[in-house]
Specification:
- It is a single chain.
- The protein has helices at 3-32, 37-63, 68-84, 92-105, 109-122, 128-152, 157-172, 196-199, 205-217, 220-232, 237-256, 266-286, 290-297, 300-318, 324-353, 357-360, 363-380.
- Helix 5 crosses helix 15, helix 9 (205-217) runs antiparallel to helix 17 and helix 12 (266-286) packs antiparallel against helix 13.
- The protein folds into two domains: 1-185, MFS general substrate transporter like domains (Growth Hormone, Chain: A, Up-down Bundle); 187-382, MFS general substrate transporter like domains (Growth Hormone, Chain: A).
- 77% of the residues lie in helices and 0% in strands.
- It has 17 helices and no strands.
- It is globular, with a radius of gyration of 20 Å.
- Its main location: membrane.
- The chain crosses the membrane at residues 12-30, 42-59, 71-89, 95-121, 133-151, 157-181, 202-225, 237-256, 268-287, 293-316, 328-351, 357-376.
Length: 382
């Protein structure tokens, strides 16, 4: 199979399942399984902790012994089998245990596929942005399709959508896989220089990781309070989903053309992302109306997608392929999980004071990112 097509298909189907999980899982636990908001919050919060543990420790360790292909298959099978155990579960305890275990397997698929992508990009025969854009498209498609399915059936259909989607992802793994993703790690690959500790000895890595932690964490209020904020503005629930998908549409547009920015320095891309993110949150706070919010959605292509592309570009150009799994694991755990979880609490505190403050409060992290980039880009030449 064409490497570009293989990567695009895996991104599309995975992010279709990701759309089901991120957008609807909490609602399914509440409406389909009868849990209250406090119970759902606790279960999903502990799931984030499990996700961070898995992507920070378990995933990089498994990557030292299994090829990328075998690891993806193992994670898909594990996720599918665990999802099936949700069917008979109805108590808070059983749902908590299942979700915690599910979060140890399923979210690790993201860094696994991303690691495969970095290997293929480094070989020079794959355009990352083009394939990753299919992931964003899959996310949008999932949101629209699941909304329609729920309106016809009910929230219980969400679980079956996830089961079918994971089954399709498993079937795709039976198709021909790029040869480089089937290479088994050697004993040499597991030695000290390729350990997690060795990763932090690479000049500039800790700095860039910290910057993307700030930038990705600053999206916490957007991910968690946008729906509530639009309700606060009096937007009809029918249109909220459409408005929120504006961001993903612009994300897709950027990613399809991301290679245009491949000659830019990583620091330049991160600086643009940090400035765009700062402007985005200030706009929402200064102009509390739906049209300003919609305009701010266009900046998602820079505040998220450009920052993400910059990190992938950096590790692809700078790190040996033996370190890709470590880098993806720590990025997923710290930038995409723990930082968002912690900043969600900060955003929630500000939202209670005044809804717009939840977004303005994110500049506490984007402005230091700007200062840090300007102060270090020439010294570290990244």
């Amino acid at each position: 199979m064409n490497n570009q097509r293989w990567l695009s298909q895996n991104f599309f189907i995975f992010f279709f399942t990701w759309g089901v999980f991120l957008q609807y899982w909490s609602g399914w636990l509440a409406e389909g399984k009868g849990l209250n908001v406090t119970e759902v919050g606790f279960i999903m919060g502990m799931g984030l902790i499990a996700r961070a543990i898995a992507t920070l420790f378990a995933f990089p360790l498994a990557s030292k012994f299994l090829s990328n292909k075998k690891l993806i298959v193992l994670l898909v099978i594990g996720s599918l089998l665990i999802t099936l155990t949700y069917i008979p579960a109805n108590s808070f305890t059983s749902l908590f245990i299942i979700t915690f275990v599910f979060s140890l397997f399923y979210p690790s698929l993201l860094p696994a596929i991303e690691s495969g992508a970095t290997v293929l990009v480094q070989e020079g025969n794959v355009k990352y942005g083009k394939s990753r854009s299919y992931g964003s498209i899959g996310f949008v498609v999932a949101v629209f399709i699941i909304s329609g399915i729920i309106s016809v059936f009910n929230e219980n259909a969400i679980l079956w959508c996830m089961i079918v989607s994971l089954l399709i992802l498993l079937l795709i793994q039976a198709m021909p896989t790029p040869a480089s993703l089937k290479v088994q790690p050697t004993v040499e690959d597991r030695k000290g220089s390729y350990s997690m500790r060795g990763l932090f000895k690479i000049k500039g890595f800790s700095l860039i990781l910290f910057i993307v932690i700030l930038l990705q964490g600053a999206l916490a209020s957007y991910y968690n309070y946008s729906y509530l904020y639009l309700q606060f503005l009096g937007v009809n629930p029918i249109y909220i989903g459409i408005i929120l998908n504006v961001a993903v549409i612009f994300e897709v547009i950027y990613l399809t053309k991301a290679e245009v920015f491949s000659n830019y320095r990583t620091s330049t891309l991160l600086l643009i992302a940090a400035i765009a993110s700062t402007v985005r949150w200030i706009i929402i706070w200064l102009f509390p109306n739906v049209w300003s919010f919609i305009f701010s959605q266009t900046l998602h292509s820079l505040s998220f997608a450009m920052a993400h592309f910059a990190f992938i570009q950096y590790i692809t150009r700078t790190l040996p392929k033996q370190q890709f799994s470590n880098a993806q694991g720590i990025y997923s755990a710290l930038a995409m999980s723990l930082s968002a979880a912690l900043l969600t609490l900060w955003g929630g505190y500000l939202y209670k004071i005044q809804p717009g403050l939840a977004f303005l409060g994110m500049v506490v992290f984007t402005i230091p990112a700007i200062i840090l980039i300007l102060g270090t880009r020439n010294r570290y030449r990244y």
